[in-house]
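Worked example

This section walks through a single chain of length 380. The input is the sequence exactly as stored; nothing has been trimmed or padded.
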Amino acid sequence: METRICTKCGNEYPATLEYFQKSATSKFGLKSWCKTCSNEHENIKRKAKRELKEQNSIKPKDGFKICTKCKRELEMSDTYFHRNKNTKDGFERQCKECKGFKFNKSRIKVKAKIKEGYQICSLCGIELPATTEYFYVDKTVKSGIKIMCKKCCYKYEEKRKESRKKLREESKVGEDGFKICKKCGKEFPETNEYFSKHKECKNGLSPICKECKREESEIYRNKEEVKEHLRQKWQDNREFNLEKGRIYRETHKDYIKQWRSENKELNVMHCQRRAARKKALPSTLTIKQWEQIKEDFNNKCAYCGKELPLQQEHFKALSKGGEYTINNIIPACQKCNVSKKDKDFNDWYPKYKYYSKKREKFILDYLNYKDGKQQLTIAI
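Given that input, the structure is written out below as tokens.
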């Protein structure tokens, strides 16, 4: 008798209707799960449906929502729920805490349209008239006033003062004319020879000695460690950083459009780098390298040889593992770039109407291709 193994529990049973249910889609006419496993799965589904019905029967207050997991009634906003376009209300069924995130109660609620002559405080999220009565002057910002309102600025300064007081209290005191380092605990003379200047402390010297500061600075010299530290820091505050970016884009739409129109090449490079990073591919091409590539090809298209507006063309397509570096980018006009798409160069170019043996040889020599393989890398 033929047997069949259940893909869920791993047990082996006779391949009959006694142990497996019918299936019109499978080859053998039986389901891959045994009857016991499929029944358990269906029971779990039924329970979930019952809970959903019970949850839907309880109607929350206006502007509030009940979490399907913890059953708490929370405000229906970005602070407590993630957004989801597929649901009716536009939010997830489970709250952020049930999904392993934290509630960001200090998040700013941005309105879709801000009134003319008004500005939203970046800390409290209140919309106030954009005047010096509610905001301090700041010449470095485009609007000419600070992002935070005066009340929030006052609270922020108070917190800074408290942190400064703690710094002063924590600075250890040694014998007369001596000072103890806060980090290593050693005693040194209270002079600039052993301690750097610090205005916040009482004696005008930092609580950490110069040797300990040198050790700290050595860590930041290693660029890879710094990058990892910054990535981790961004991930720890992911929700806040995403919201901050969304707010900036909504409040600076005109500036972003102007910047993109004035810096088209830079904008293209940012998009190409992002696409390469998503696929875990190298993305090290710089503006200087791109300018050098165009000069090497006499500011002409690599495929047709015409003097037209040039685009960055991947010799090996990004979808096939082509990197965004000087070893894989050549200049091409829009027509040639669109015609090639993600095709292989050796299959596409000989059949192309602007085919030229000289240009083909120059491209392959420039990128160091021999017998269909790249031998060396280009360095500028």
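What to look for: The longest helix spans residues 35-57.
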